[in-house]
Structure formats: structure tokens, C-alpha cells
Amino acid sequence: MNTHHRKLISLAAVAALVSACATHLEPNSALEHAHARYNAAAGNPQVASLAAPELQRAADKLHEADHAWKEHEPASRVEQMAYLSSQRVSIAEDAASARAAEASSAQAAAERDRLRLAARTNEADAAKAQAAAAQATTAAVVAAADDKAARDQARIARRDAQLADMQAQMQDLQARKTDRGMVVTLGDVLFETGKANLLPTSERNMDKLATYFKTHPEQRAIIEGYTDSVGSASYNQGLSERRAQAVMSALVALGVPPDRLTTRAYGEDQPVATNATATGRAQNRRVEVLFPDPGTRVSQR
After folding, report:
1. In 10 A of CB 38, how many CB atoms?
2. pLDDT at res. 171
3. What pLDDT is attached to residue 293?
4. Distance separating alpha carbons of residues 158 and 177, to the nearest angstrom
5. What is the C-alpha separation between 276 and 153, in angstroms, rounded?
6. Nearest CA among 41, 91, 83, 92 for reference residue 62
7. What is the predicted pLDDT for the residue at 133?
8. What pLDDT score does 152 carry?
9. Which pLDDT score, from 0 to 100, does residue 21 have?
10. How far is 137 from 120, CA to CA, in rounded Å?
11. pLDDT of residue 13
């Protein structure tokens, strides 16, 4: 058993101990999903043997998530660490696939050398022709395998860098993980009471969001407007729609393509706090920018 395997087994034992000691805590679906992803990868002999360093990094993130959960840290912190662990598992799986392709390439190269030797020792023209054809076929297989391995390694490196950049930017935006994707909440300090014109204090948040879109050109978002319950429901519906549209217009003015943005308005529906206090109403007056997880369809709330 090599060092990487011993580390993985030790970490699995720690994870099991944390789980046993924290049965009184509320379950966290994101953390449970991350454990399931990690356990499946660790149980795959190819991933465990060929991508042990990448799997170890996934295990480290999972350990951070477990620790945060055990220490009653905010659910958003637990879910973010769990999400990063799952992404690290994906990287480990890709790395294992790439290294398996490299091994296949090496095997094909050895076969090519064997065929070359056979061709030199066989003086029959027919045998030489057959060996030449086999060499050409094997060379094509080797070239294809080498190319795939190189592309896989480059893709893994890009994803690793993108993941680190995404984590830093999401932390700067104070995003939180939800079952619909990552959500950035913009409080009512963006607008004057009862108005939909963005205040100058909103510029920093708009710049951060625009930068995120520019560094992640594949990312789309849904901009959702909400209000408190002061005023009529119809007025609040219109106000929330205008505020969501104001945020979208600001992002488009900063260079974000409009076809990557969608707006939704919920008025005074979907409050996150009581409307009976000024503090609660301030929390309900908000615009949320939702970044759906890749490949998911987001329904109306």
C-alpha cells in the first residue's frame, strides 16, 4: 500500500469518526452529496491508483466541510466547501482518465517497437509490407493517444485554475450555495426607498459582477427583484421588476451580453424575514443574482 492510499484510508476513517460524533447535528444535503461523490471516486481502483494527489485534495476540502459542519459554522460555508470538494473529485476522475490514456500510449509505443524489430528480421517482402501496415496503424493509435492525453492534461489544468478563480470571486461577492445554484444578494442600499434608480454606492457591486461575467464567458444568470410589503401588491410587483431590470441594464452597460441575463420579479412574495420590523423589511427589499449550476434548469420560485 503506497503513501497516497494510506492517506486516503486515514482520511476516510477521520470522516467516519466525524460523522459518528456529529449524529446530533442537522443533516446537510450538499455535504452528504459531496461524501457520496468522494466515496464513489475513492472506491474506483483507477481513480485511487492514478489520481491519488487530486483525490487527496478533494478529501482535504471534504474534511474542511466536515469540520465547518461539526463546528456549527454557517451553512453557506459548509455548502461551499462541499461544492469545492465535489469539483475536486471531478478533476481527480479526469486526471485518472488522462493518465490511463498515457499508459495506453506507452503500451502502444512498445508494440510499435516490437513490430519494427519483426520487420527488420523478416526478409520476406509480404511480411515487410504487413509489418509496415501494422506500424502505420500503431503509430496512428499512439499519436491519437498522445494527443488525447495532452488535451486531457491541459483541460484539467484549465479547470483547476478556473475553479480557484471562481472560488475567490464568489467569496468576494459573498455568494451562497443554494439548491438552485450560487446566489449573490444585493441589499436595498442599491436604491432609494420606493425607487428603481441605482445609487452611486452600487457601482462597486456592479463592477464585481461584471468582472465575474467577463472572466466566465459561459456563465448565465437570472436577476430576481423583491420588495417588502409596504404599499400595494401590484405596485410592489412593478417596483421589483423595475429594480431587477435596472441591475440588468447596469451590467449590460458594463459589457455583459444581454443574452446571458434574464430578469424575474416577485414583488412582496418570497420574503426572507418578517415585514413587521424595519430590519426585516430592509432584508426583504433586495435583488438576487442567481448563477444556476451547469446543466440545470431553474424553474420559477
Report:
1. 25
2. 78
3. 81
4. 23
5. 56
6. 83
7. 87
8. 85
9. 46
10. 18
11. 52
Q: Is residue 92 within 8 Å of residue 43, measured between CB atoms?
A: no
Neighbouring-strand partners of residue 275: none
Measure Cα distances from 271 to 10, 150, 225, 299 in Å: 45, 50, 11, 18
Looking at the predicted structure, is the pLDDT value of residue 80 above 90? yes
- Say which amino acid occupies 132: A
**Grid coordinates in use for 149?**
492525453
Whether 62 shows a pLDDT value over 90: the answer reads yes
Q: Which amino acid type is present at position 69?
A: W
Residue with cell string 452611486: 200
DSSP labels for the chain? --HHHHHHHHHHHHHHHHHHHTTTSPP-HHHHHHHHHHHHHHT-HHHHHH-HHHHHHHHHHHHHHHHHHHTT--HHHHHHHHHHHHHHHHHHHHHHHHHHHHHHHHHHHHHHHHHHHHHHH---HHHHHHHHHHHHHHHHHHHHHHHHHHHHHHHHHHHHHHHHHHHHHHHHTT-EEETTEEEEEEEGGGB-TT--SBPGGGHHHHHHHHHHHHH-TT--EEEEEE--SSS-HHHHHHHHHHHHHHHHHHHHHTT--GGGEEEEE-TT-S-SS-SSSHHHHHHHSEEEEEEEPTT-PPPP-
Answer whether 0.70 is exceeded by the pTM.
no
Q: Which residues contact 56 (CB under 8 A, 6 or more apart)?
A: 4, 7, 8, 11
The whole-angstrom separation of Cα 40 and Cα 93 is 10
Distance of CA 177 to CAs 132, 218, 223, Å?
58, 19, 16
* Res. 18 pLDDT band, cuts 50 70 90: very low
The pLDDT, as a whole number, for residue 156 is 84
Its sign, for the CA torsion 168, 170, 174, 176, is negative
Output the nine-digit C-alpha cell for 98: 488522462
Rounded to the nearest integer, the mean pLDDT of the chain is 86
**What is the average per-residue pLDDT within 104-126?**
84
Q: What average pLDDT does this structure show over 151-180?
A: 78
Question: In one letter, which amino acid is 164?
Answer: A
